[in-house]
């Protein structure tokens, strides 16, 4: 079975997430990066191609040129990965899907909810595979938490608490990675809510299997002169009657990548933290606390499949990301069993951004969650 061929959009000189995509995609040797448009600037795109050590002729100046040229090759790309700022997601996805090329995209799906709706229509018309890199759903113990809740181990879910705390934007946005995230022309209508809030939101729904039905949002731009939000707190109501709290902030000095999920049912609770991803705490109603560790023999099938090393060997962000690409390879090969998020998750994430931004601005109180 040959390796799938990947074209990368974005991820040029100075980028963080592009190299992460490349490492994750190639970890299992099922996928190989062979082409790309690494920058909107042709010179920088060529430099990006050099850094990835691909054929110089396959470092293209724009997406349309890449798609046309690759279609004429016997070894042309099988899919593209979109790793550019949010404003570029829809144009790149549209061109690719309409050219018959599958898409793996960074989150959020697009810059606005209306764009996400347009993208969903394109996916429906072209019938090409489209998936999103909500990375944290690839962690083995996140998938174990999902299995535990689905199996009723904590009973009926009553309370969901998810937080994503960072401090790197507590001051002036310095450097390429910070600057585009606080620029509405590049990021869209959301700041922290679009950058990390959607991760927290997806994690909560992915693990619990519940769907948000209402929210009450309080978003703020704390740093003087900043247009987009950098501090968010949102109350949630779920379709089973459970209540939830979502916190997403990038102005909490001292915090690094503090993503944490706690879910409480009528028989127990679970607690998982991204900064200690190889441990999952399971609380029982009788007072016992159980520690579940990565690669434990008792893990569910989904968690075992996502585990790569024996117990005691830490697995983290890169491996979780690679699990999504392994899932995506399953999709492209027509196999079953993939848990990788798709356009429905993308629409819900964009709805969270849009509704939270506008509800907070208008002080609307509780509103219905509608995609």
TrEMBL record:
InterPro entries linked to this entry: Gfo/Idh/MocA-like_OxRdtase_N, Gfo/Idh/MocA_oxidoreduct, GFO_IDH_MocA-like_dom, NAD(P)-bd_dom_sf
Residues in GFO/IDH/MocA-like oxidoreductase domain copies: 142-270
Ranges for domain Gfo/Idh/MocA-like oxidoreductase N-terminal: 5-123
Pfam families named in the record: GFO_IDH_MocA, GFO_IDH_MocA_C3
Single GO MF annotation: nucleotide binding
The name this protein goes by in its record: Gfo/Idh/MocA family oxidoreductase
Organism in which the protein naturally occurs: Sphingobium fluviale
């Amino acid at each position: 079975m040959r390796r799938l061929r990947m074209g990368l959009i974005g991820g040029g000189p100075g980028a963080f997430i592009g190299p992460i995509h490349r490492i994750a995609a190639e970890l299992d040797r099922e996928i190989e990066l062979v082409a790309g448009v690494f920058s909107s600037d042709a010179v920088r795109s060529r430099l990006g191609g050099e850094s990835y050590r691909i054929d110089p002729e396959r470092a293209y100046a724009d997406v349309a040129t890449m798609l046309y040229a690759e279609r004429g090759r016997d070894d042309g790309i099988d899919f593209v990965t979109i790793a550019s700022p949010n404003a570029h997601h829809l144009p790149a996805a549209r061109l690719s899907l309409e050219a018959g090329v599958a898409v793996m995209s960074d989150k959020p799906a697009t810059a606005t909810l209306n764009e996400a709706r347009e993208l969903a229509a394109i996916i429906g018309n072209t019938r090409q595979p489209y998936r999103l890199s909500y990375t944290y759903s690839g962690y083995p113990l996140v998938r174990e938490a999902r299995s535990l809740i689905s199996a009723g181990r904590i009973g009926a879910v009553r309370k969901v608490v998810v937080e994503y705390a960072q401090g790197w934007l507590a001051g002036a946005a310095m450097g390429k990675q910070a600057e585009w995230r606080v620029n509405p022309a590049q990021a869209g209508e959301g700041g922290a809510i679009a950058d990390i809030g959607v991760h927290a939101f997806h994690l909560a729904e992915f693990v619990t299997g519940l769907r948000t039905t209402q929210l009450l949002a309080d978003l703020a731009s704390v740093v003087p002169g900043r247009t987009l939000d950098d501090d968010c707190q949102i109350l949630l109501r779920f379709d089973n009657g459970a209540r939830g709290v979502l916190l997403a902030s990038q102005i909490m000095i001292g915090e690094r990548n503090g993503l944490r999920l706690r879910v409480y049912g009528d028989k127990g609770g679970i607690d998982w933290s991204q900064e200690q991803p190889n441990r999952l705490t399971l609380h029982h109603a009788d007072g016992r606390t159980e520690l579940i560790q990565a690669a434990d023999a008792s893990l569910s099938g989904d968690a075992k499949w996502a585990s790569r090393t024996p117990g005691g060997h830490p697995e983290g962000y890169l491996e979780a990301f690679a699990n999504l690409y392994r899932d995506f390879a399953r999709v492209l090969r027509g196999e079953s069993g993939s848990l990788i998020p798709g356009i429905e998750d993308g629409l819900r994430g964009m709805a969270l951004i849009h509704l939270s931004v506008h509800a907070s601005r208008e002080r609307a109180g509780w509103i219905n969650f509608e995609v």
